[in-house]
Amino acid sequence: MHTIANAPRLIRLPEVLSRIGVSRSTLYAMIQRGMFPASRKLSPRVAVWSDSEVSRWVTVTLAA
Fold first, then answer.
1. Is 15 helix (H, G, I), strand (E, B) or coil?
2. N or C: which end of the chain has fewer CB within 10 A?
3. What is the pLDDT of residue 6?
4. pTM (two decimals)
């Protein structure tokens, strides 16, 4: 059973863009090419990303 304490942290588009340092259009192009984790839809107007997936991408990409 999941509780709030161990639920994955989800982040919205502005934080993703801030953390990876690209424009919105570049981010979506990267997602289409499979170069960045896809968002998950919480509702028709709300998309989120897993904080841990974004952190892992930043670590791997910046280490290369």
1. helix
2. N
3. 77
4. 0.84
Tell whether 5 is covered by a domain.
Answer: no
What pLDDT is recorded for position 3?
A: 59
Give a yes or no: residue 1 inside a domain.
no
Burial of 30 (0-12, 13-18, 19+ CB in 10 A): middle
**8 Å CB contact between 20 and 57:** yes
- Domain presence at residue 34: yes
Q: How far is CA 14 from CA 2, 19, 23, 24, 50, in A?
A: 27, 9, 10, 9, 13
Task: Identify the DSSP state of 37.
Answer: P
Domain count, the chain: 1
Task: Please report whether residue 4 resides in a domain.
Answer: no
Tally of helices (H runs) and strands (E runs) in the chain? 3, 3
